[in-house]
Every structure is written in C-alpha cells, then in structure tokens.
C-alpha cells in the first residue's frame, strides 16, 4: 500500500506571501486578504479537497535587509501589509467541520501567559482544530518594534524557546485537571478549586505565579509545528514538534533531515511516527503537460524579481542590493534562518551570485515549482513521499484560488484512486486526525508537567 499523503495550504494574512509578484495576476484574489468572506470561501474550498489544514505563516516585522530599507518590500507587497492571522480562524472554523488551522506565533515576542490563553481560546472555539507553528524570529525589524536593538543569537533563541515551552506546557497540561469543571447547578459549584493549580515558574527568562485562565480545551496543547532544519533547530524539533516543515531541496537532503529528526526523537523516548514531516512545495497543474507549461509561462510574466530578492534577503540575512549580478556573495555568519542559508549553499554552490539566485526564483521564490499534468504531479508527490519519508506537503499559493482548485479537482482524485489520499476525514480533533489521539502522548516532553508535575523545575 502506498503511503497516505497529507496536504496543507500554506498562506499568510497578506497580499504577497512566497511567490512574489503573483498578486498582480488578473485572476489572483489575494488583494481581498482583509475581507472575511475571502477566508470563509478559502476554508470551504480546502475542506472540499480534504486538506488537513490551512497553515498560516506570520512575521511581526518588515523586510528591510534589501537596500537597508523597507521601501522595496512596500512597493512589492512583500508580506506587508500583514494582518493578525488568529482573528480570522474562528470564522473559518464556523463554516467547516474538519479543517485544521496552524498559526505561526513568535514566542520571542509573545508573553507566554497571555499567549497560552489565546491558544486555548482558539482550541475551544475551533472544537480542537488549532495548531501552533513555533518560531523564534529572524527579523531585526521585529526586535526593534518591541524595543530590542536586534535579534538574539540564533542558538540562544532556541535556549529561550525551551524554557518558554516548559512554561506553556505547565499552563496547558498541568494547571487544570480534566475533571476540574463540574458545572453543578444544584450546588452552584462550577469548578472544584482543589482541581486547579497555580503555576509557579521562576526561570532565567520568565516568572509566572498564576493559574491558567482557561478550562481544559479539547486538545489542551495545540498541535505543535516547527520549521527549524538547522542543527539546533532539529534538536528542538525532536523534543517538541509533532509536525516539522522542511524546505525543498534534493531528495537525499530531505531524507537526511527527516531521518535525523526522527532518530533524535527516538533517542528522547518518543516514537518515530510521533513526528510527521511536511515538505514545502509549489504546484502548477494542468490536465496535460502542455496545459500546465502554458499556465506556468503565463504566471512567469507576473513575477517580481526585486520582490523575490527582498524576501530572500530577509530570510537569508544578506543584503543582495550590495552585489552586482555576477559578484560572489559572502554569506558570513547570519542570525536569520540558518537552515535557509545552508540549503541555498547546497543548491547554488558556495560561490552563489544574484544571477544564480534569480535563475532559481522562476516564480518569485527560492522554491522551484513542480509543473505538469495531474498524473505527473501525482507521481511526483508519491515519489517524494516514498523516497524521503515525508508525510505530506505544505503547498504555497501561486494564483488563488485556482492553484488549490486545480490540486483539488485534478490531483486529489488521482491520489485517491491510487490509495494515497483519504476519501473522508477521520472524526475528532486536529491531533486525532493526524495521530489518532486528542492529547499529546505520555512520551512527549509536555507530559511531565501534568497533574502534580505542574510545578516541576
């Protein structure tokens, strides 16, 4: 039997997300990003296609590395303006029954006590369909926005994140017992005080003496996503993540990352299948190869090379505006997304240039698209799943909504015929659908903080 493939839509509450310039295409609807109806219709479409989730990226800064200015980002709508993605999730949940919602939140800038309440609230309102993409940030502009001169060093951010995770686990998993809420109308007792604990956390970064304000939600802890592929990021993922995102590169590279994270998770006492891996992908699909190629060439006419460089400059921590087209680029030591720099070096070689970078960004991003007929794309998805061990794909948008409608109408039926895609949703929460259980397993790092372990150091 083939491996079952899982699909997420990858988007952002903005105009220009990954494929820069696509918002100028006449059929693209991303300019409606601030309309609630846009997201309602979006969610309905994805649920029709049995997508596992809509995954929201997010940043809390502007891309000002290119030319040391935000001007090019503003001109090209490179993830700015960008709205808070959490606020549209309840509306999408109200018109769907199964679709999961992953939301990116930067723990470096989120007060953990209030963040824990916000995620529990979303888990309640969605009926247990919320996930959290744990990020530590990479933009100096975001640091400056909250009064910090610049980014904390890459590995130090992960050290901070480990303490943050311990604290939110205590709040989500340990503050309230499952039977704390009795809701006894006859006695007038709603919650049993003996079943609710005040959390006392006094760590290097955080101090909290308070009970969690929310009663236990369906999942307690949201489904945990993480996208770090650097050495330190993989260690963090092996400890905390249930779902890991990896960037597209050669199959051998993806397989090495997948195997390494799962091996580290097993060493920590987890099961290998406790971690699902999603590969970032961009699909341009047609009924025939010729139709797909024609669509691809049409899309290419709307690419913004400047906007693509703006995005790459921020995520790689390199100001490409300083270099001539064929001048070798010096990567140096970056505090941005280290795994992106490593992946770029693997694909373009140690001496990359702006020209080499632009040659790879054929649709406005460093993620080369897979272009072809539905049969060809289905073959690719299955081959990558079988040969690398990834569980699914995080599909970034090109022209919306047609890019997802093409996948749903053309590719999904083929995958279903081949036994590689579900024909119906499993019941239950987001975690139920992914792992067969509503709560984190006893082997997860969060389990130690349950019950009387809520206040362990």
Q: How would you sum up this structure, described in words?
A:
With 457 residues, this protein is α/β, with parallel strands linked by helices. Strands 1-2-3-4-9-10-11-14 form an 8-stranded parallel beta barrel, surrounded by 4 helices. A two-stranded antiparallel sheet has the order 5-6. A two-stranded antiparallel sheet has the order 7-8. The protein has helices at residues 36-48, 71-76, 89-94, 112-125, 140-145, 154-174, 231-240, 251-267, 289-300, 305-316, 338-348, 354-360, 374-388, 402-417, 430-435, and strands at residues 6-12, 53-57, 100-106, 130-135, 181-184, 189-191, 199-202, 207-210, 223-226, 243-246, 276-281, 283-286, 370-373, 392-396. The chain contains 15 helices and 14 strands. Helix 4 crosses helix 6. The model is unreliable at 333-339 (pLDDT under 50). The protein has one domain (6-58, 79-179, 192-289, 367-445): Luciferase-like domain (TIM Barrel), CATH 3.20.20.30. The protein is globular, with a radius of gyration of 22 Å. This is N5,N10-methylene tetrahydromethanopterin reductase. InterPro entries: Diverse_substr_monoxygenases, Luciferase-like_dom, Luciferase-like_sf, NTA_MOA. Residues 25-391 form the Luciferase-like domain. It holds the Pfam family Bac_luciferase. One of its GO terms (molecular function) is monooxygenase activity.
């Amino acid at each position: 039997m083939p491996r079952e493939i899982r699909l997420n839509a990858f988007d952002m509450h903005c105009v220009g997300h990954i494929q820069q310039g696509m918002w100028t295409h006449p059929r693209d609807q991303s300019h409606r990003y601030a309309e609630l109806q846009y997201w309602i219709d979006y969610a309905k479409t994805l649920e029709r296609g049995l997508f596992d989730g809509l995954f929201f990226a997010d940043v809390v800064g502007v891309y000002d590395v290119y030319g040391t200015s935000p001007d090019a980002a503003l001109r090209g709508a490179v993830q700015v303006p960008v709205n808070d993605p959490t606020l549209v999730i309840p509306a999408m949940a109200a018109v769907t029954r199964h679709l999961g919602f992953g939301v990116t939140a930067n723990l470096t800038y989120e007060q953990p006590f209030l963040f824990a309440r916000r995620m529990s609230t979303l888990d309640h309102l969605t009926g247990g369909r919320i996930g959290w993409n744990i990020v530590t940030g990479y933009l100096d502009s975001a640091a400056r926005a909250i009064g910090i001169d610049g980014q904390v060093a890459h590995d130090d951010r992960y050290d901070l994140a480990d303490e943050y995770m311990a604290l939110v686990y205590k709040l989500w998993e340990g503050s309230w017992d499952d039977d704390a809420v009795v809701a006894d109308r006859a006695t007038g007792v709603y919650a049993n005080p003996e079943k609710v604990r005040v959390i006392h956390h006094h760590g290097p970064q955080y101090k909290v003496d308070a009970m969690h304000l929310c009663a236990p939600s369906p999942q307690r802890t949201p489904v945990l996503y993480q996208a770090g592929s650097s050495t330190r990021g993989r260690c963090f993922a092996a400890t905390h993540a249930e779902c890991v995102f990896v960037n597209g590169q050669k199959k051998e590279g993806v397989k090495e990352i997948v195997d390494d994270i799962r091996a580290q998770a097993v060493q920590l006492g987890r099961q290998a299948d406790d971690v699902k891996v999603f590969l970032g992908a961009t699909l341009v699909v047609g009924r025939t190869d010729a139709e797909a190629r024609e669509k691809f060439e049409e899309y290419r006419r709307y690419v913004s090379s400047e906007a693509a460089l703006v995005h790459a400059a921020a995520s790689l921590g390199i100001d490409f505006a300083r270099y001539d087209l064929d001048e070798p680029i010096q990567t140096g030591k970056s505090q941005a997304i280290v795994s992106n720099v490593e992946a770029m070096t693997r694909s373009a070689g140690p001496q990359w240039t702006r020209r080499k970078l632009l040659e790879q960004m054929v649709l406005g991003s460093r993620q080369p698209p897979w272009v072809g007929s539905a049969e060809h794309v289905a073959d690719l998805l299955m081959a990558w799943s079988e040969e690398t061990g990834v569980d699914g794909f995080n599909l970034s948008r090109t022209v919306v909504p047609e890019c997802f409608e093409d996948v749903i109408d053309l590719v999904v039926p083929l995958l279903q015929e081949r036994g590689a895609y579900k024909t119906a949703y499993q019941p239950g929460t987001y975690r139920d659908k992914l792992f067969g259980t509503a709560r984190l397993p006893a082997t997860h790092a969060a389990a130690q903080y349950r019950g009387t372990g809520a206040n362990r150091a």
